[in-house]
Write a structure and sequence with these properties.
Layout (H helix, E strand, L loop, with lengths): L3 H70 L4 H35 L8 H31 L2 H15 L9
């Protein structure tokens, strides 16, 4: 006759297997979780690169080249006042967008390295919403006006094109600029 205590070692192995199965099930969930984590790292890395190399340069191009060229070429009076007000608005929006970006940057750097980063989703959404509104205003209002103003004189448009080109040329000529 066997007692329950005689079966205890076998039951212990069986219970151990049940625990192993639970842990294996959790491990089986890992691949599904790694894919979004890898996507988050990729997005953070690309966003960091894009803001450094494109967005900030874009703002500089507008503020150092486009806005001054349009202001200089605008007709005195109402047109000039309108252009100046728009350029001031857009420049102020650039600073606000850059400020928002700076609040996200350190957290995104951590995410890009696969670390936990404190990234405020509401700030990301605000940045996206604000940038869309900024770019839509620029596309709808400022750029058509700039086209009209600079289009009155082909030399003004050509000068803007040359100035932008020179800002972006890498090489011996720009090493001293």
């Amino acid at each position: 006759m066997s007692s329950d205590t005689d079966n205890a070692p076998i039951e212990d192995f069986s219970q151990c297997h049940a625990g192993i199965f639970r842990k294996l099930e959790m491990l089986g969930e890992l691949p599904a979780l790694l894919e979004p984590a890898a996507r988050a790292r990729d997005i953070a890395e690309k966003a960091l690169e894009f803001f450094r190399e494109a967005i900030f340069e874009h703002h500089l191009d507008e503020e150092r080249e486009l806005f001054p060229a349009v202001i200089k070429s605008a007709e005195k009076g109402a047109e000039s006042d309108r252009v100046k007000a728009m350029a001031e608005r857009l420049t102020n929006e650039h600073r606000e967008l850059e400020r928002l970006w700076k609040t996200l940057e350190s957290g995104l750097k951590k995410v890009a390295k696969g670390q936990f980063g404190d990234v405020d989703a509401s700030v990301i959404q605000h940045l996206v919403t604000q940038y869309r509104a900024h770019a839509e205003f620029e596309e709808r209002e400022f750029l058509p006006l700039a086209q009209t103003i600079l289009g009155r004189n082909a030399n003004h448009m050509a000068a803007l094109g040359m100035s932008l080109h020179m800002r972006h040329v890498r090489g011996p000529l720009n090493a001293y600029v």
